[in-house]
Amino acid sequence: MTGGIGLGLLFSFMLFSPNQADERWSPNERTRHQVPTNGLGDGDLTSVPRYVADIVELESALDRRSALYRLLEGKSVSEISKLLSSTFELEPTQNLYSLQHLLFVELARFDPGKSVELVWETERVRWETLFDIVASYSSSVNSEEALRVFSTQPEPWKSRLINAVLHNQQKLSETELVAIAETLNFIKSYNAWITEVGINDVIDEPRVAFDLVLTADMSDFQKKEFFSQVASRWIDRESTSNLGSMLSLVYETFADTKSIYWRSVVAEIVATEPHIAWEQLTSLPVDVQMLFNDVIFEAWVDRDPSAAIQAITSQAYLNSMTSEIPTLLEPWIQAVSGEILEHIDLVPRDFQISAIRFAIDHLAQHVPPEDVIELLERFKQRGFNTLEATDSFVGIWSRKDPLATIDWVVQNLERGTSNGQRMLWTTMPQVALVDPQKAIEIALEHPVEKNLEYSVMAGLLGEERIESALSLLPQIRESYLNEPIFGSMASALIEVGRIEDALALAETLRESQKPRFYVWMVLPWLQDDLDSLLEYLPKLESAEIRSLVAGTILSAPDRHVALSEKELEFVQSFISEETDQP
C-alpha cells in the first residue's frame, strides 16, 4: 500500500512546478519537471509538519508536496479518506486546493467511490477539475470498478466520468467494455466514445464523419458537439472561396434532419467570412438559400450590420426573397435597436412598422420604460404608426410593473389600438394579481362593453386566486357580456372540489341567466368529476335545468363514450319530452 502511495505521489509531483503560482491540476498536462531533489530530506524528518494545516503554510510548493508525502507514509485508504475530509474544514486557499488535489489522486487510485463522495462535498465550481482527477487516476488502476461507481452518478457528470475512463483505460477489451456498458446501463456513453474514436479516423472526410454522427446512438447534445468538432476542422482545412460547395454538402447531408444539427455546422463554417458565405449562398438553389440564410445573415450582422442590411434590401433580393425578409430583419434590428430611429429608413417601407415593433420589444427588455415611451413618441412625430408597437410594449411592461403600467395606460389610451382596448386587456389581469380591488375599480370606470371585468377575473382564475375572485363577484355588473364570468368561476370551484359553492353561484343570477350558467358548468364538470356530476344531477333546482344539463352531457363531443350503458340510461331519464335535447 505504501509503495502504491509513493508511486502515485511521485507521479503527482511531476505534474506541478515547484514555483507554480497556480497549482491547478489539468488532465492534459504532461511531465515538464524532474522529480524534486531539493525538498525536505531524511535529515529533516523532525521538522516535517504533522498536520495538513501546517503543511499548507509552507512557502515552497516543493516543501508542501514533500511534507504531504512524509505524512501519508504508511496511511491506509481509510486514513487518507479521513485526512482529505478533514481538509474541508480549513480556510480555502490555493495552497490547500493543491494539496487536496494530491490527496484526491491517491484516494482515487484505491477507492473511486469514496473519492466521488468527497467531490460532492466541495464547492460546485471545483467539481469539473476534481472529477477529472478522480476519473483519470481511478481508471489507471481498476477501470471496471471506476465504471461501476461512475455509472451511478447523475448527469452530466456520469457521462463525463465514464468518457474519461474509456479514454484512459488500457486493460479492458472492446468486448469486455460492451458487456460492462450494457450491464451498468451506460451504453450511450460507450457509443459516443466509439463515435469519437471513429471521427478521429475520418475527421478529414466531412461527409463520412457527419453520416457517422447522424447514425450514432447518442443524445442530440452529444451529436451537436461532434458536428461542431468536424465543422471546425473542415473550415480550418478549406479555403473560404469554397464555402458554396461546403454549404451544398451540408444541405445534402442535413436537409432532412433536425435544424439543431445543421445550424451549428453552418454557423461554424461561415463564422469567419459570413459576407463571402452570403455571396456564395445566393448562387445556390432557392431551397438551400431559404434553409441557411438566417444563420449566415445573423453571423454577418454580428460582424457588419450596415453591409448586411444592404444585402437584403437590394431590389433584386426583395423581388426574389420577400417572404424571408421579416425573419432576416430580426437579428439586424436587435443589433441596431438602440439607434433604430436613425436606421429605420434602411428598412423597406412595407416592413418598417414590424421593424419598429420588434425593436421596441427588444428595448423593453433592456432599458427603462420612460426611454421606450420617448422613442415611441419620436417615431410618432416622424409620422410612423406606433399603435401596435405601443400595445406590445405595454404587454412587456405590465409583466414587470403592472401598477405603473396601468397608471400610464389609463392616461394614454389613444396611443394604443382600438383606443387602448388591447393595452387595458393586457394589463388588467396583471394588475388584478397585485391589487384586485384596484383592478375591478378601474374596470368599472369603463363601459361594460369593454369587458374589462372579465379580464380581471380571468387573471385571477388563471393563477387560481379563487378567493380573490369570489370577493369581487358582487361588484360585477349585470350584463350578458359578464355572464361567462360566473361559468368560469363555477368551473374553478368544481376543479378544486367545491361543488356546493359552484352551484350556489346560480342563486346570484337572474332566471334568464341560469340556463347558460349551467351549460358553461357542464363541460369542465364532466372533465373534472363525472361521478359528482351524476350524483348532483337529480338535485338540480328544476326539471328544466336538469333536462338542459342532461342534454348537454349527452351532446358533449366524445364525452358520452365514457358513460356506461346504465349511466347513459340514467342521464337520458332527465330529458324532458317538451325539449329538443337528444
Plain-language structure description:
With 582 residues, the protein is mostly helical. It contains 35 helices and no strands. Helix 9 packs across helix 11 (187-202) and helix 27 runs antiparallel to helix 28 (452-462). The N and C termini lie far apart (87 Å). The relative contact order is 0.03. Residues 1-43 and 578-582 have low confidence and may be disordered.
Quaternary form: single chain
Low-confidence residue ranges? 1-43, 578-582
Summarize the amount of helix as a percent range. Answer: 55-70%
Mean pLDDT: 85
User: How many DSSP E strands?
Assistant: 0
User: With helices defined by DSSP (H or I, 4 residues minimum), what is the helix count?
Assistant: 35
Kindly, what is the distance between the CA atoms of the first and last residues, rounded to a whole number of angstroms? 87 Å
Strand-pairing-aware structural class: mainly alpha
Our estimate of the beta-strand percent is under 5%
Main beta sheet, described? none
Q: Could you give a short description of this structure?
A:
The protein is mainly α. Helix content is 66%, strand content 0%. The chain is extended.
Question: How are the SSEs ordered, and which strands pair?
Answer:
Elements: H1 2-13, H2 52-56, H3 61-72, H4 77-86, H5 94-110, H6 112-119, H7 127-139, H8 143-150, H9 157-168, H10 174-184, H11 187-202, H12 206-214, H13 220-237, H14 243-254, H15 259-270, H16 274-281, H17 286-303, H18 305-312, H19 315-321, H20 325-336, H21 340-343, H22 352-364, H23 369-381, H24 387-400, H25 402-411, H26 421-434, H27 436-444, H28 452-462, H29 466-472, H30 483-495, H31 499-504, H32 514-528, H33 530-536, H34 543-555, H35 565-572
